[in-house]
Structure formats: structure tokens, C-alpha cells
């Protein structure tokens, strides 16, 4: 072990010790931003190599979350806006995402995969890869990882309302009746993440400080942590710093 690795290990132990007794987020959501910039900085002519490296890094994050006691993780891989990218670039991204689904669902991994997003907008092969990962991991007892693909916060809310209307109509109800009873809980029951707690902590890498439509409904009471590191460079100590920052905050839940 070199001097740098030794210093890193000591610092990591100190961070972990500092976290003892602090609250741990039950649900962590992360915007894995900066893959393309990382690839350019690393000298790659093909920026998709940044997405490849970034995809390989997701398993590390899930291991860190499991060690910390986090129960739910949402990783945003592809937005609805990304679906308008050039066909060849989009095809590359979708192939990488299919590989992520296969890796996370591989034998020996404890995670339970849940695909969230407007899957009807995705190619059949991508949907099949995501659904296969869900089926293979349905009985696992590890943390739940929401793989957000073709995801947009506004689209999710629109889909939730549409689903609620269809459900009400299927039971013979009228719009007037629904208008009298509808509340936030009714809509929440039709979100992509229904049945899961809202994210306590939302992390965005690469130094950008905006949500971009990520979990618009669910993040109303979330704490936010913005990290300058590009996603492929996001280290365990960066994650532990985010947990330390979260643990030190006094959550007000909108008050």
C-alpha cells in the first residue's frame, strides 16, 4: 500500500467512526453526472467510454450503501430528454444500461432491481433486459435499487394521474366522484416508486446544482448533497462525506 492509499484508508476509518450514532438515510437517490466530461478529461475520443466506466462504478455505490445500512437506492441512468439524442448515441447508452441490469441481477449479488421510468418509451430489448433483472432478483433480501431509465419527474406525475384515472374508471367511478376524494396519497400510490419511502438524501455528482426533474414528487422533503467529483471519480470517502453531512443536518420536513 502506497502513502496515498494509506492516508486514504486512515481518513476513511475516521469518517466511518464519525458516522457512529448518526442517522442513516433509508433511501438514497443519486444523479450520476459527469461521465462524458470524465471521458474527455481522461483523453478518450469516444465519450461513451465514460458511460462504460460509470456503469461499472454503480455496484461499488450499492456495496457502500449496503454497508451503511441504506435500504433503498435510486440511480438515474437515462432521462426522457436523453431519448432525443442521436440514434447511434442512444443505442450505445441503452446497450450499456442493459449491461447494468444484467450485472446487478447476476448470481451472487444481493440487490433487488426495480425498473422505474416510462418503459413504454423504450425499445423492446431494453424493456426485456430491465424486466428480466426484476424477475431474477424479486426474491432477494438485499437493498432495493431503482434503476431509473426513460425517467422524467413530470412524466412520472402525469403517468401517476393517468393510472389513477384508469383505476377509478375500472371500478365504475366518475370524474366528479374522484375530484371529491383525490389527495396526495392517491397520487403517491401510483408513482413509479410506490410502496417505497421517499428519498432522505439526493446526491448529484459533477458539481452541477440542479434537480433536472429528478424525483420531483418524492424529493419534497429530501436533503440535497452536491459533490464536485465526476461520477467515475466518486469515491467511498465522497459517499461517507455525504452521509456525514446528512447526519449533521437538522431535518425540518418543510417546516
Strand element count: 6
Any idea of the CATH class?
Answer: Alpha Beta
Biggest sheet layout: 6 strands, parallel
What is the total domain count?
Answer: 1
Short description:
This protein has 255 residues and is an alpha/beta fold. Helix content is 47%, strand content 13%. It has one domain (3-248): Undecaprenyl pyrophosphate synthetase (3-Layer(aba) Sandwich).
Protein architecture, described:
It is built from nine helices and six strands; from the N terminus they run H-E-H-H-E-H-E-H-E-H-H-H-E-E-H. With 255 residues, the chain is of the alpha/beta class. The chain has one domain: Decaprenyl diphosphate synthase-like (Undecaprenyl pyrophosphate synthetase). Helix 3 packs parallel to helix 4.
Keywords:
Undecaprenyl pyrophosphate synthetase, single chain, six-stranded parallel beta sheet, 6 strands, alpha/beta, 47% helix, 255 residues
Structural topology:
Blueprint lengths: L2 H17 L7 E5 L3 H7 L6 H21 L3 E8 L7 H18 L7 E5 L7 H14 L6 E8 L1 H18 L4 H7 L2 H5 L12 E4 L18 E4 L9 H13 L7
Parallel strand pairs: 1-2, 1-5, 2-4, 3-4, 5-6
Helix pairs in contact: 1-9, 2-3, 3-4, 4-5
Amino acid at each position: 500500500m502506497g502513502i496515498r492509499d494509506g492516508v486514504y484508508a486512515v481518513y476513511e476509518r475516521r469518517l466511518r467512526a464519525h458516522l457512529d450514532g448518526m442517522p442513516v438515510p433509508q433511501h438514497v437517490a443519486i444523479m450520476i453526472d459527469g461521465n462524458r466530461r470524465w471521458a474527455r478529461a481522461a483523453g478518450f475520443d469516444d465519450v461513451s467510454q465514460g458511460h462504460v466506466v460509470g456503469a461499472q462504478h454503480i455496484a461499488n455505490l450499492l456495496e457502500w450503501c449496503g454497508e451503511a445500512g441504506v435500504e433503498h437506492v435510486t440511480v438515474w441512468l437515462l432521462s426522457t430528454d436523453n431519448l432525443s439524442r442521436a440514434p447511434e448515441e442512444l443505442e450505445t447508452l441503452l446497450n450499456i444500461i442493459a449491461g447494468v441490469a444484467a450485472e446487478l441481477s447476476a448470481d451472487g449479488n444481493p440487490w433487488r432491481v426495480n425498473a422505474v421510468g416510462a418503459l413504454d418509451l423504450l425499445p423492446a430489448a431494453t424493456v426485456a433486459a430491465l424486466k428480466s433483472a426484476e424477475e431474477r432478483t424479486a426474491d432477494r433480501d438485499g437493498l432495493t435499487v431503482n434503476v431509473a431509465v426513460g425517467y422524467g419527474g413530470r412524466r412520472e406525475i402525469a403517468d401517476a394521474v393517468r393510472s389513477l384515472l384508469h383505476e377509478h374508471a375500472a371500478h365504475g367511478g366518475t370524474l366528479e366522484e374522484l375530484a371529491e376524494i383525490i389527495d396526495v396519497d392517491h397520487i403517491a400510490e401510483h408513482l413509479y416508486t410506490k410502496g417505497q419511502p421517499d428519498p432522505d438524501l439526493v446526491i448529484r455528482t459533477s458539481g452541477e446544482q440542479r434537480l433536472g426533474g429528478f424525483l420531483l414528487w418524492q424529493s419534497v422533503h429530501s436533503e440535497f448533497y452536491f459533490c464536485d467529483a465526476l461520477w467515475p471519480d466518486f469515491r467511498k470517502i465522497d459517499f461517507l462525506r455525504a452521509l456525514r453531512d446528512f447526519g449533521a443536518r437538522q431535518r425540518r420536513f418543510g417546516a
